[in-house]
Each structure stands twice: as structure tokens, then as C-alpha cells.
Specification:
By secondary structure, this protein is mostly beta strands. 5% of the residues lie in helices and 46% in strands. Bound molecules: zinc ion (ZN).
Length: 120
């Protein structure tokens, strides 16, 4: 006997409440903040910008607010089986469902390193 396990894999736009698949969210992503593990994206339906936060296999839609330090407030969260995420100085690489997305960092400044810079 097999047991059917329902796994919630839809995120919801915080503005228009449209259900979005993880693929749709990653497809409409803009820039990311590697230090905070945030990515911006534009909703397919209402075209308003929100943020997503990724921690390991958990993806949340929400927004960033607050002083003195910005903080992420999630509205909707899913856990994605098989999600792999690699944060790099230049941005982030997302692997999910046999697809791959690359999102560039908001700050495109090169990180200074102690070794000699490599010419482009
Ligand atoms: Zn929306």
C-alpha cells in the first residue's frame, strides 16, 4: 500500500494572493542579496515586487522591513524537496526540479581579495 503524501509546493503572492509555483517565482526573480539570502521577484499576476528568502530547502515570500537592521517577514512558506541552493559572491545558483536559475547579486561590486586580481 502506498501512502499519498500531499506536499504544499505553492507560494502565494503577498499582494494579489495568486498561487505561484517555485518555478514561476524563480523565473521572475530579479536580484539577490547573498549576505541575507534574499531574492527579489516580480509577481506574474500583479507585477508588484516582493522578496523571497531561501534557507536550505525552505522558501518564503515576504517583505523586508525595519530599522535599525532590515528583517524579513514571511507571508507564505514552503519546503521544497530537492532544492539546492548555492550562495556565491556574485549571486546565487538555484537547482530545483531538473532546472537551474542564476540570480545576480544586487551589489555587482567585486569583492576584494588578497590575491592579485585576475584581469577580465
Ligand atoms: Zn501578485
Amino acid at each position: 500500500m502506498s501512502q499519498l503524501i500531499m506536499i504544499e509546493t505553492k507560494l502565494q503572492c503577498r499582494f494579489c494572493k495568486t498561487d505561484l509555483t517555485p518555478e514561476q517565482v524563480f523565473d521572475s526573480s530579479g536580484v539577490c542579496w547573498p549576505n541575507q539570502h534574499w531574492i527579489s521577484f516580480e509577481c506574474l499576476n500583479c507585477h508588484r515586487e516582493a522578496k523571497i528568502e531561501i534557507e536550505k530547502t525552505q522558501v518564503s515570500i515576504g517583505d523586508i522591513d525595519g530599522a535599525p537592521g532590515p528583517c524579513f517577514f514571511p507571508d507564505s512558506t514552503v519546503r521544497l524537496r530537492g532544492l539546492k541552493i548555492k550562495w556565491e559572491w556574485w549571486g546565487v545558483e538555484i537547482h530545483y526540479a531538473d532546472r537551474m536559475w542564476r540570480v545576480k547579486s544586487k551589489s555587482t561590486k567585486r569583492v576584494a581579495t588578497k590575491s592579485n586580481a585576475v584581469d577580465d
